[in-house]
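Troubleshooting: if your tokenizer reports a length mismatch, compare your output against this known-good record of 165 residues.
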Amino acid sequence: MQENLTRFVLRHPVHFVAFGFGSGLAPRAPGTFGTLAAVPCYLVLHHYLPLPYYLVMLVLAFGVGTWLCGRTAQAMGVHDPGGIVWDEFVGFWLTMVLAPPGWLWVVLGFVLFRFFDVLKPFPINWLDRRIKGGLGIMLDDVVAGLFAWLCLQLLARSGLLPLAG
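Known-good structure output:
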């Protein structure tokens, strides 16, 4: 079965991107592996894109992701396959908007995003159950990213942690 899924993902560029460039093929915790794969992408994007362009990229990644994820889920015949992790990429990138520099903040952003993505507190769980298709796949992770972003910003402004490190 895993071999068939791998072939399915690798044969079509839309599915390959929806599966986070293959990171969603991890047999366990594909969402975590997808988020891990989003980290180096974030580091490159953050380094080379000024904030306004980063925000435009995020909006485009959401729009394209809605289509990619919806098309892949439809081709698989499953509402929200666990291996589709483009939504994790976008959710993590959203978490990291205006994050202080340094690995501490990347790790905190990762942990906070995974926390909200796995736990799915209201309204994330509501969105996950009610909105179908590509928009539903993307939207719950974007809201998890917003929750994680808010927590990260509160931590950064609290003075409890160093702003660089």
